[in-house]
């Protein structure tokens, strides 16, 4: 015959009451397994739906470079034809080669870099590894310092390499291991890129800022970082084609050099200022620059430019869509529906135990003791629901990742989101348990004892 559970009134005084109530909560899960399973599933499904959408929103809307996001800026200049602004009044989201080089050479920021995407072919020179295409960017040497790019081996090229367009390159860790082998320091090696030999002077460690703020135009906002980093002038001199967006409001000359000499916009430009307070000073410089270009006959429209910091740039490009925000709110509305159902199930569970409550009260337990015990029991349900809900969340995110690889980077749960999931589940269960627990505390001991 099973040994009866000890009466709560006889619990040793030295035992922490919360720990004792926690133990009672876990044991109570076995009393009515059907109700327990229903409550856990109801709560865990609501938590999983909320955490899945919240994880996506967290990944998409997070600050990708919090240490300096208020000091990194994208200048946009309106070099369009005619004398009237476009209907939106917004300048193009990229700049022309002429403007990029002018701003870069004048160097009014602490650091600055032009940037455009390239897709060069890699020839490893090995019979077992045929030539393949890779993703890359043509940038200035300041790129690595501006965006806190971590180096595994070597370093960025020199300022002199920037000026003369040297045949040097920095490659990513994945490309280095693919071509030269894992664990090999590729610095000093030669790699053949688009039929030209380049000396490897640096290897970038794994680096995937989310969102990919530095290259939002003509590229996925959540793709992995590039394999090839080439000096900007080197790429232009070698006429490496643009792997990205090109917007021409007027015809350009023939070939790549025609694109370079045109007013087409195809280069993203970034500047880092010494402090956020220097923003107005740089804006004044842009205003003066445009007026200077107008005097040279280039700019024909009224002065029109923008200067966005990182978070403003993400908002301007709508990295987080309205659909994503709406989905998150709908998921939390679904969690609310799950809470209402959990309240009903807890009422059914607690209302079946008036005799036990009456005995506890008759033996000296206060309403506060009963309230604490039953609310702790609701919290235990939330804790179990958190475990099941996390499992469902991981499954949902894995499905989304398989469905759309372009957003794989934002489907990863970090420590903060794990803590949020557990806290959300427990808080939801405690909230759902308030009414049933309050009802349980209203039991009158005398009436219950008479009915026994």
TrEMBL record:
<dbReference type="Pfam" id="PF02687">
    <property type="entry name" value="FtsX"/>
</dbReference>
<feature type="transmembrane region" description="Helical">
    <location>
        <begin position="415"/>
        <end position="435"/>
    </location>
</feature>
<keyword id="KW-0812">Transmembrane</keyword>
<keyword id="KW-1003">Cell membrane</keyword>
<dbReference type="InterPro" id="IPR003838">
    <property type="entry name" value="ABC3_permease_C"/>
</dbReference>
<feature type="transmembrane region" description="Helical">
    <location>
        <begin position="371"/>
        <end position="400"/>
    </location>
</feature>
<dbReference type="InterPro" id="IPR050250">
    <property type="entry name" value="Macrolide_Exporter_MacB"/>
</dbReference>
<dbReference type="InterPro" id="IPR025857">
    <property type="entry name" value="MacB_PCD"/>
</dbReference>
<feature type="domain" description="ABC3 transporter permease C-terminal">
    <location>
        <begin position="331"/>
        <end position="442"/>
    </location>
</feature>
<protein>
    <recommendedName>
        <fullName>ABC transporter permease</fullName>
    </recommendedName>
</protein>
<dbReference type="Pfam" id="PF12704">
    <property type="entry name" value="MacB_PCD"/>
</dbReference>
<keyword id="KW-0472">Membrane</keyword>
<keyword id="KW-1133">Transmembrane helix</keyword>
<dbReference type="GO" id="GO:0005886">
    <property type="term" value="C:plasma membrane"/>
</dbReference>
<feature type="transmembrane region" description="Helical">
    <location>
        <begin position="34"/>
        <end position="57"/>
    </location>
</feature>
<feature type="domain" description="MacB-like periplasmic core">
    <location>
        <begin position="36"/>
        <end position="286"/>
    </location>
</feature>
<dbReference type="GO" id="GO:0022857">
    <property type="term" value="F:transmembrane transporter activity"/>
</dbReference>
<feature type="transmembrane region" description="Helical">
    <location>
        <begin position="329"/>
        <end position="350"/>
    </location>
</feature>
């Amino acid at each position: 015959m099973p040994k009866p559970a000890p009466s709560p009134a006889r619990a040793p005084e030295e035992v922490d009451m919360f720990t004792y109530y926690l133990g009672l909560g876990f044991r109570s899960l076995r009393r009515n397994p059907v109700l327990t399973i229903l409550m856990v599933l109801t709560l865990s499904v609501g938590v999983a739906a909320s955490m899945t959408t919240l994880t996506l929103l967290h990944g998409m809307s997070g600050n990708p470079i919090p240490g300096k996001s208020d000091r990194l800026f994208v200048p946009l200049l309106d070099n369009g034809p005619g004398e009237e602004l476009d209907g939106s009044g917004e300048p193009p989201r990229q700049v022309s080669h002429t403007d990029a080089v002018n701003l870069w050479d004048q160097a009014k920021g602490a650091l600055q870099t032009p940037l455009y995407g390239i897709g060069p072919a890699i020839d490893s020179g090995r019979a077992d590894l045929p030539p393949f295409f890779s993703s890359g960017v043509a940038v200035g040497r300041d790129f690595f310092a501006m965006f806190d790019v971590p180096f595994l081996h070597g370093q960025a090229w020199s300022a002199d390499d920037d000026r003369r367009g040297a045949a040097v390159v920095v490659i990513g860790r994945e490309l280095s291991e693919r071509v030269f082998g894992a664990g090999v320091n590729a610095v000093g090696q030669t790699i053949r890129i688009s039929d030209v030999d380049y000396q490897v002077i640096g290897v970038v460690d794994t680096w995937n800022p989310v969102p990919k703020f530095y290259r939002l135009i003509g590229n996925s906002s959540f793709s992995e970082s590039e394999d090839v980093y080439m000096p900007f002038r080197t790429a232009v001199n070698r006429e490496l084609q643009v792997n990205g967006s090109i917007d021409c409001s007027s015809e350009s000359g023939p070939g790549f050099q025609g694109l370079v000499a045109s007013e087409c916009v195809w280069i993203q430009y970034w500047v880092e200022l010494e402090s956020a307070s220097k923003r107005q000073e740089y804006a004044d410089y842009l205003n003066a620059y445009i007026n200077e270009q107008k005097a040279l006959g280039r700019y024909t429209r009224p002065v029109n430019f923008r200067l966005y910091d990182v978070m403003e740039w993400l908002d301007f490009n709508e990295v987080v869509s309205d659909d994503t925000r709406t989905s998150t709110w709908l998921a939390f509305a679904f969690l609310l529906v799950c809470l209402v159902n959990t309240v009903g199930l807890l009422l059914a569970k607690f209302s079946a135990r008036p005799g036990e409550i009456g005995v506890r009260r008759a033996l000296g337990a206060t309403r506060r003791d009963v309230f604490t015990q039953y609310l702790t029991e609701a919290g235990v349900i939330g804790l179990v629901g958190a475990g099941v809900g996390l499992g469902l969340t991981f499954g949902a995110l894995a499905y989304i990742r398989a469905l759309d690889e372009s957003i794989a980077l934002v489907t990863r749960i970090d420590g903060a989101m794990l803590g949020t999931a557990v806290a959300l589940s427990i808080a939801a269960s405690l909230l759902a348990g308030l009414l049933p627990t309050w009802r349980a505390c209203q039991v009158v001991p005398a009436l219950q004892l008479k009915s026994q």
